[in-house]
Amino acid sequence: MKTPQARELLDKYQRGQCTDAEKAIIETWYLQYQSENKTHLSESEIAEDIQKTWDTLQKNTSPQDEGNYRLRLYRVAAVAAFLVAALSLFLYFQQQNDSLKAVNDIPAGDNRAVLTLSNGKTINLGSAENGLLAEESGSRVKKTANGVIEIQDRNKELTEEGLITIATPRGGKYEIILPDRTHVWMNAQTTLRFPAKFSRGKARNIELNGEAYFDVHHNPARPFKVHTSRQVVEDIGTQFNIASYHDEEDTRTTLVEGEASVLSKANAALKKLTPGMQASIDQVGNISIQHVDTEEAIAWKNGDFSFRNVDFKTAMRKISRWYNVEIVYDSSAPTDIPLGGMVSRSKNISVLLNLMEETGAVHFKIEGRKVIVSK
Predict the structure, then answer these.
(1) Residue range 58-106, pLDDT digits in tens
(2) Which H or E run contains 314?
(3) Cα angle for residues 279, 280, 282 (degrees, 5° grid)
(4) Which of 78, 117, 197, 292 would suit a FRET pair with 337, their CA atoms being 20 to 30 Å apart?
């Protein structure tokens, strides 16, 4: 591919006329470039890289090809053509990136949360040292070497007493292990409230506001129930994700493994889920069931954004929570744009915004912790 052809491909991409294969080539190359966190290269550095690659190709030509000059030349020329195309894309995207990065880029969220004991004492988990942090109602609160919070039930004879609250801010996430060994991953702007110990013979009740993924330690004699503002989810040997944000229209429960039931608080409607099913409860309490790709629903837990089957403003709310930014739409802002694919949540916000701008349907401007959206 010669440079003019690469430019033509980029123009097609901007106009939305690329085939799926052409679109994949551009977006995959761009994401790989971003993932390597390359700094701005000078022309001399680019030329040096190309020369090194050219020299390596010549050295590594197999001996049996020495007599076949045309074959050898074709191989070198083919790779060189790819380098020219890649260089063209590199320079193009680097120029596009400079407009957002030069003004004010914003890093991704990280492990941040505040734990509140029943007596009102608070602990900043992000800055707390590893080891024992507190004791509550016969349980110990510990921070492990890998940053996970464990609530350890040390006195089985004590009855359920104090409540513990863990809250992640916008731009934060955290991982905890409850007294019954249930593993919970909390997304940004999420609050979890639970007893310091679960009494024998009783259901294990916890409260959730936000989004969390649960790997439940199953005990048929003591059901595990997650309460949100609209529903109660009960496990039957289960891994599931619940997204229950106040600024979203629906509360969504996605079952990954096992079985679970979802009860609507508004009308007592009860639905049972099997793996791959998602229950959505609207603002009046109606439940709808659909089959979904669970990897998309739990992409955030695995460190990615999934923009497949997601409308533009829902995607921007996800970005707003994770990067702790305010999204401001001016009068020209589009109501929706075509989105797709997955992007790492570890990247600066400019990576996501630049990718969206490549649709040609939207433009972003970063001002402090505001993202201005326009046409």
Answers:
(1) 555 455 544 554 555 455 455 455 555 555 555 555 555 555 554 578 9
(2) helix 312-323
(3) 150
(4) 292
Contact 126, 110 (CB under 8 A): yes
Per the CB < 8 A criterion, the answer to whether 195 and 178 are in contact is no
The three state secondary structure string of 70-128 is: HHHHHHHHHHHHHHHHHHHHHHHHHHHHHHHHCCCCCCCCEECCEEECCCCCEEECCCC
Q: CA-CA distance, 152 to 361, in Å (whole number)?
A: 51
From the list 33, 34, 7, 12, the residue with the least C-alpha distance to 22 is 12
Q: Is the dihedral of CA 302, 304, 310, 312 positive or negative?
A: positive
Of 136-140, 228-232, 274-278, the least confident: 136-140
Pairing assessment for the beta strands 231-244 and 251-264 based on DSSP bridges? antiparallel
Distance between CA atoms of residues 193 and 204, nearest Å = 12
What burial class does residue 353 get, using C-beta atoms within 10 Å of its C-beta: 0-12 exposed, 13-18 middle, 19+ buried? buried
Whether the per-residue pLDDT at 138 is higher than 50: the answer is yes
Amino acid at 27: E
Q: For residue 32, what is the enclosing H or E element?
A: helix 20-35
Backbone angles phi and psi of 25, in degrees to 5 = -60, -50
| Strands 204-215 and 224-227, bridge-based pairing | parallel
DSSP class of 375? -
CA pair distance 85, 48, nearest whole angstrom: 16
Contact 316, 62 (CB under 8 A): no
CA–CA distance, 38 with 4 (Å, rounded to integer): 24
CA distance linking residue 1 with residue 22, whole number of Å? 13
- Calculate the dihedral angle through the C-alpha atoms of 153, 154, 156, 158, rounding to the nearest 10 degrees: -90
